[in-house]
Design goal:
By secondary structure, the protein is an alpha/beta fold. The chain has a domain at about 30-115 and about 125-145. It has helices at about 1-20, 145-160, 160-175, 180-200, 200-220, 220-230, 230-250, 255-260, 265-305, 325-335; strands spanning about 35-45, 55, 60-70, 75-80, 90-95, 105-110, 135, 140. It has an eight-stranded mixed β-sheet, with no helix packed on it. A hairpin with a 2-residue loop joins β2 (about 55) and β3 (about 60-70). It is elongated.
């Protein structure tokens, strides 16, 4: 009887001990950071953030989640961080996923420099580091959106006809855009125009230079232009028009004098021919001057300064070179060494 009682008590103890074992009690792969310190992060919602989730700072894993406790208005997430990691007190904690179906982890993000200060303000001093057990408040944490809200937004996007409108927009763009043949022709014309423009950039520069000079002349003539559009200038225009009207009346009466000047036409024609011939003679003379200059500078003047004849080759009737015999004869005569 006593043995049965002991056996029943042992079974009760074994069952109770097994009931206290859960998944989180099992050893987790990776470092446990037992020699580190704890940091508490307050989130509005953590979804299914598991214990043992990694804590990432600057892209490097620096700790793991050791406990998740539900409070009245928020959730306290306790993280065990490596001992040599310094976390500033103005850090921001965000729940992220590396992929759509990946595990949730805690990302610690540093605030952007100069984000909370005006451009003219001096740079702020660095925030003090978090102490062991110190909490990151709700204002510096960001929880992920609820899955139901994401699905509702996606359903609203699909059912609102946005996809159909986008498809209609693409169809209209295809109708508006010309065919590939027209685009090829247009591109060929643009290529031809651009090549012509690049080949005639000097003319474009000349045109722009002419416009610039014309603008400079107009700018220099601003006082005269102001005078022309003034009241005095307008009266001068009126007087000039009166004089032109009188001249228009007088000039027809001078027709007989104008007709008597026809005898000048043959004279002016002969004068034009003479000037043309003189111009051609000038061109021919300018073309011959370099030849005469070369004759005097290359042939006449050197010979006149150093009168000598350099015989470099003597070829006989049979094509043999005779300059060697001549040198031998001159050497015998003593005319050359």
């Amino acid at each position: 009887m006593i043995s049965r009682i002991f056996l029943a008590a042992a079974c009760v103890l074994m069952v109770s001990s097994c009931s206290s074992i859960d998944v989180n009690s099992l050893p987790q792969p990776g470092p446990s950071y037992r020699d580190g310190y704890d940091v508490v992060m307050q989130f509005e919602s953590v979804l299914n953030l598991p214990e043992g989730a990694k804590v990432v700072l600057d892209g490097v894993t620096v700790g793991v989640v050791s406990n998740v406790a539900l409070k009245s208005k928020h959730v306290d997430v306790t993280a065990r961080v490596a001992r040599d990691v310094v976390i500033p007190s103005d850090i921001h904690a965000v729940l992220q996923q590396a992929t759509v179906l990946g595990d949730i982890y805690v990302a610690l993000e540093r605030p952007q420099p100069g984000a909370a200060t005006a451009p003219d303000d001096p740079p702020a001093s660095p925030a003090p580091p978090l102490k062991p057990g110190q909490a990151i408040p709700l204002a510096q944490t960001l929880s992920p959106p609820q899955l139901e809200d994401t699905i509702a937004s996606l359903a609203n996007f699909v059912s609102s006809g946005s996809i159909q409108r986008a498809q209609n927009t693409v169809i209209r763009l295809n109708k508006v855009v010309p065919s590939s043949r027209e685009i090829t022709s247009l591109a060929t014309r643009m290529n031809t125009d651009l090549e012509a423009l690049s080949s005639n950039m000097d003319r474009v520069d000349q045109a722009l230079d002419g416009v610039s000079r014309a603008a400079a002349v107009m700018h220099n003539q601003i006082p005269q232009l102001e005078y022309m559009v003034s009241d005095k200038g307008q009266r001068g225009f009126e007087h000039a028009m009166d004089v032109a009207s009188y001249l228009g009346t007088i000039l027809p009466g001078m027709g007989s004098i104008t007709l008597g000047g026809y005898w000048l036409v043959p004279f002016l024609t002969s004068l034009a021919d003479s000037v043309g011939a003189l111009q051609q003679s000038k061109v021919a003379t300018e073309a011959e001057i370099p030849k005469y200059r070369q004759l005097f500078t290359d042939y006449f003047l050197p010979v006149d300064k150093y009168p000598a004849i350099n015989i470099t080759s003597i070829v006989g009737p049979d094509g043999r070179e005779l300059s060697g015999d001549v040198q031998e004869v001159l050497r015998i005569l003593g005319a050359m060494p």
